Amino acid sequence: MTSESNQDAIIIGCGFAGIYSTYVLHNKLNYKTRTFEMSDQPGGVWNWNRYPGARVDHMSKEYCFKFDENLYNEWNWSEIYSPQPELKAYAEHLLRRYNLRPHIQFSSRLANAKWDEENSRWSAEFVVTKPDGTIEEQKWTGRHLILATGCLSAPNKPKFAGLEDYVAAGGKVYHTGEWPREGVDFTGQKVAIIGTGSSGVQSTPEIAAQASSLHVFQRTPVYTAPAYNRKVTDAERDEYRKRLHELVAATMQQPGGFAAHLDGITPPTMSADFNGNKEKIMQRFEDCWKSGGFAFYGSFIDLILSPDCAKLATEFYHNKIKSLVKDPKTAENLCPDYPPGCKRMCVDTNYYVTYNLPHVHLVAGLKERPLKVVGGKDKFIELEDGSKYGPFDAIVLATGFDAMTGTLAKINITGRNGITLKDAWAAGPVNYLGLFIHGFPNMYHLAGPGSPSVLTMMIHQIEQQVEWIEEALKKMDAKGLKTIEATEEAQNGWVGFSNMAASMTLLNSCNSWYLGANVPGKPRVFMPFVPGMVAYRQKCNEVLEKDFEGLITA
Ligand code: N01
């Protein structure tokens, strides 16, 4: 091991969280840092999710970094909701613009990380794939370990019977989260999509436009709102730039960490303020639907709190779906029967109307009649009730991710006294502020469980956490402190508070990946921090103001 291998900080992941961490720790704090990325390219989720139709579901004027006004002003998003290639290009632009590439090592997978008590450092072992395809093992150490490993980066691939035989018989299988870099041409093919979350909803219309037939296999219908995506005009771009400060100020007031969707619609109130006037409540839903995207979330403050409000929202959605989808049975099958927001809402372009195309078929009810054989030698998909569909040339798994904890579960992380992260999280993820895990000093998990993360506009969360770490490290360095770690008491308090907050909402009332319910055997715990960004930021700031309250420093 060379002295070069000893860093102030080791950063894992080169998505937006890893990129911003590299910028802050290396460029601003002047730390010696090394960032490791499993892929040979940057971008995180925007590198892996290259499926047709992949695009951001927050407005691009907002889903981007705002820490540097020049950066904001010089980057031209072409559409209201940018497509994946543009987001990937933005990640590459960040590396160039801030000269970060020399500090990033690609094709490097973290296999083991162990806290070295004697030296108060993390010792990390990487499996590195060299350009000629050979594998090399490398050891690095770092005073701090930043896990910017993403929440939705470990693909969920259910073990479907028949899939192996299908591939052996020449059938093609694609997971949306591991899409081939060269793209896939479905022209003239008979295609099946399994899954109707965001990835399924975005890819369905695009694949339908190419395929000769498309069957969409749905276990649970989703709530999805129209994006009304289009090109951004130069005049609009100028206006965004002029109003950047206003946007940032408005964002700071929003629990969801986004404000752009709410621009132009009146701020949300409690549904009770409408005194039970159904007509007015439905009109409010209609106005939000017309604004597009996540504006529907901003319809009422109590949308995820009040069963009555949720019931009306569901009724609104059912009416909408039935007005858009011509075949009454298909429309009925697309209607969700759980509160909106309980599963993450989707934002789409032409999702519902795609089912009006004669070659597009919805196969619903997989809860009652699960998938029995997927593909097999004859390339059919068979359900438990004996019904059979196919044969298919290609099967697209839009089956999501082992969310929030799946990526870390693949790494052996050992903290103080030999405690492993697997053991610490055996009953579900626990931490303090979503950042610190008791027993794992100087380790920071970004945008993960215990923070608002996936319930918010993710870049806002990333900026807040990385800037908080920046302040914490500055403070530690000024005081000559070497380690920082959550107390067990603070961790228990945070977990208890998070669970209580989630239990007061309707978010626990359906099977979602927020709860780990999509992965068989995963502990059922509501993982994100429900109170949202405003409360979260306030608490994080308080911890610093109160001299690392809830944290042991030494
Ligand atoms: O995954 P999902 P996703 N048999 O878990 C079904 C972000 N994202 O990749 O709902 C049959 O939402 C499963 O059914 P059910 C965003 O945060 C953002 O679509 O569990 N079906 C569900 O329909 C999003 O929420 C964008 O009953 C099975 C689907 O597969 C998150 O990533 C775009 C099954 C999985 O849906 C995940 O989205 C894409 C089985 N055994 C993703 N197992 C943007 O727009 C699973 N399913 C920015």
UniProtKB/TrEMBL annotation:
One of its GO terms (molecular function) is monooxygenase activity. The keyword Amino-acid biosynthesis does not apply. Residues 8-243 form the FAD/NAD(P)-binding domain. Coiled coil: none annotated. The keyword NADP applies. It comes from the Eukaryota. Keywords: FAD, Flavoprotein, Monooxygenase, NADP, Oxidoreductase. SUPFAM superfamilies: FAD/NAD(P)-binding domain. Its cofactor is FAD. InterPro entries: FAD-binding_Monooxygenases, FAD/NAD-bd_sf, FAD/NAD-binding_dom. PANTHER family: L-ORNITHINE N(5)-MONOOXYGENASE-RELATED. Belongs to the FAD-binding monooxygenase family. This is Cyclohexanone monooxygenase. The lineage of its organism: Eukaryota, Fungi, Fungi incertae sedis, Chytridiomycota, Chytridiomycota incertae sedis.
